[in-house]
Amino acid sequence: MAKYFDVHPDNPQPRSIGQVVDILRGDGLIAYPTDSCFALGAQLGNKEGMDRIRSIRNLDDRHHFTLVCQNFAQLGQFVIINNAVFRAIKASTPGSYTFILPATKEVPRRLLHPKKKTVGVRIPNHVAAQALLAELGEPMLSSTLLLPGEEEPLTQGWQIKDELDHVLDAVIDSGDCGVEPTTVVDFSTDEPEVVRVGAGDPSRFE
């Protein structure tokens, strides 16, 4: 059964955040709110967590997992960014964007796109998500909580607890969060390509 944490949207309780991070460090899988919608999260080195996300979402091996980072400095450790891309991403973070970029050697091989050797990265603009990342001290392996056959992600913490109680270890609820997934921008080639239009304004990359 998943533990349910009702955290304050503006001042998340440190004790609750600490308990969730302990679950992550114990190879747990969580559902947590972001500025775009709820997401699934696991610790970076948690292979079983990645497999559980694949199973819940019915994903194939071409799916880009996302490293959710606390800040730009952390993001820069895990992806290769040239000057032009640096400026474009810096101006759009934190925010509802996921960027696909060539990965550095810091990223576990199993998280990379099998052919492109790329990975998704993002910096959320959400108080509870930022509190989690600050306490964890490293990026979180993440994927939008969009169930197979559904067009929209789950948006209520209690509903997620109800439907996924048997496959999650914790659910963080901090009230309303977005209903759209992030806008995804692929920077792995010469020209940026908007591959999914979501919560972030895509016009700055088109």
Automatic annotation (TrEMBL):
The GO molecular function terms of this record are: double-stranded RNA binding
Q: Which domain of life is it from?
A: Bacteria
- InterPro entries given in the database record: DHBP_synth_RibB-like_a/b_dom, Sua5-like_dom, SUA5_domain
| Domain YrdC-like residues, every copy | 14-200
The name of this protein is tRNA threonylcarbamoyl adenosine modification protein (Sua5/YciO/YrdC/YwlC family)
What is the scientific name of the source organism?
Saccharopolyspora dendranthemae
